[in-house]
Each structure stands twice: as C-alpha cells, then as structure tokens.
Amino acid sequence: MKVLVATEKPFATVAVEGIAKVLTEAGMEVALLEKYTDKSQLLDAVADADAIIIRSDKIDAEVMDAAKQLKIIVRAGAGYDNVDLAAATVRGIVVQNTPGQNSNAVAELVFGMLVMAVRNMYNGTSGSELKEKTLGIHAFGQVGRNVARIAKGFGMEVSALDPFCPDEVIVEAGVKPVHSVEDLYSNNKFVSLHIPANDQTRRSVGYDLITRLPKGGVLVNTARKEVIDEEGLAKALRERPDLKYVADIRPDSADSLIAEFGDRVFFTPKKMGAQTAEANINAGIAAARQIVDFLRDGINRYQVNK
Ligand code: 3PG
Prior knowledge:
The protein is of the alpha/beta class. The chain has helices spanning about 15-25, 40-45, 60-65, 85-90, 105-120, 140-155, 165-170, 180-185, 205-210, 230-240, 255-260, 275-295, and strands spanning about 1-5, 30-35, 50-55, 70-75, 95, 135-140, 155-160, 175-180, 190-195, 220, 245, 265.
C-alpha cells in the first residue's frame, strides 16, 4: 500500500518524520510531494497512491481520476471544502478529516492578530486592551472553543453563536449563547469567525453584519476567505473608519483593500493558523493513523462524505 503526503504548504519536518514512522511501521510505503507549483505534479504523484494525506490541497474529480488505486483521502485538518466530496463518493473513495488536531494553533493566532489590531498594527500610537471587552465567537466548534478558553485568560466577556451546538455546551465553557447572527455582531466589539465555507455560509458576512459592530470593532477571520462578501467588507470599511479587518486568508481583493484602507486591514501572506510544529504533528500523525486503521483494519473514523 502506498500513501502519498501531498502538501503544497509543507508540514514541519518533525511531523513528516512522525507520519512516515507510523506508516512504515504498518508496512506501508510513503511518498512525499511538497511545495508543488503545478497540478500536473500532483496528477503524476497520485497515479499509484492507495491513500493521500493533504492539507488545503485541492482534490477534484480530475485528481481522483488520475489516482486509479485511491481508496482514502485524509485532510490533515478541519475544513474539507478543498475536496470534491460528491466526486469522491461516486468513485467509492472515503474522505476523512482530523477534527480538533490543529484547533489550538488557529485559536492562538486569533489573539496574535487581535492584539496586533487593537495596538494599531504596532505603529507606536496608543491602542487599547482586550480585558473586559466583548468577543463574539461565530461558530463554537473546536477552534471556537479554544478561542473562548484563551479569551477568558485575557479577561474578556465572551459570547458565541452556533445553531449546531447545544446551549449547555456553550454555557459550560463560561460563554454566553447568542441566537441571532445580528445580535452577535451588534453586541460584540470583536468578532472571530469560525464558520466553514459551504453553500450556506459563502459570502454570508458582509456590509450588514460588519457595520453592526460597535465603535472600534475588529473582525478576525481565521476561517475561510469565501465566507466574506468582499465588496460588502470594503463598503463597510469605507463608511466606518473605526473598523478593522484582520485575516489569516488573503482575500481576492487584498491589494485594493490594502491600498484603500492601509493598516486598518492585515493579511498573512499564506494561511498560518495551523502552521505550527505541534499542529502539524497532531494533524499529520492523526491522519497517518486513520489511514492505517482504515486500510489495514477497516476502521473508518471521521468520514465526511457519507
Ligand atoms: C483547517 O481547516 O484545518 C485549517 O484551515 C488549516 O489549513 P491548512 O492545513 O491548509 O493550514
């Protein structure tokens, strides 16, 4: 059995070594394709793979058709909007993710970016603190829960909206449940986005929600660029010079947003949220173990294309 680790954005070396150890100890062959620049390289590399481990790498029907032996795709991470699930299902390929494995890394970056925003991008002027300020968490999954835990350390007042999460879970975390998205944005100075990109959420955060933020509001996006209506965002920033937008995913209109709004916006050059040795080790090794469990023992955990 051959397992391809295909990561345009590579894992830390220590994580790759851990993945290889798990797979070789289970008698599997490991191939590595990192930093590829052209889809053709991926198409060649998957040709004889029984399984692939990916990150945000795009796996569409063409890639699946080039991988005649492919049985399982494991997305080492949480979001799986980069995999064509319907195409996988039709071809009998299992798609899994590794929920929770990189969530602390993403949550820590939320505060890295939020502190930077309230300290005026470290430009030397007087900024503000997070203590006793309101934070709205838009979706209370694994990342949202870690954000809540860290926010408590800062002494923030934390609320969360998540129609898929019971109120008890939110309350148990010491967080106030909110039941309307409008209320979440109107009543919190800072909002941190943790919704996935899907048909329900694409372009769902735009002018109306962003302009609800109280004076000095900051929207933090470590989720997906697709959930933002970028025209609405620009209009909101234009009308409300007090607002800021910081994101771990460069928007399509990044250059024009930077040109117009200067240091009221900030974007990491490449998605950095899960880019820590710890998160790479956790997610990468979990992915390798899930592949061994599936190919060797028929155990199917965390399938997302049922
Ligand atoms: C995820 O969905 O797990 C995160 O967005 C991290 O993505 P990455 O593995 O491409 O850094």
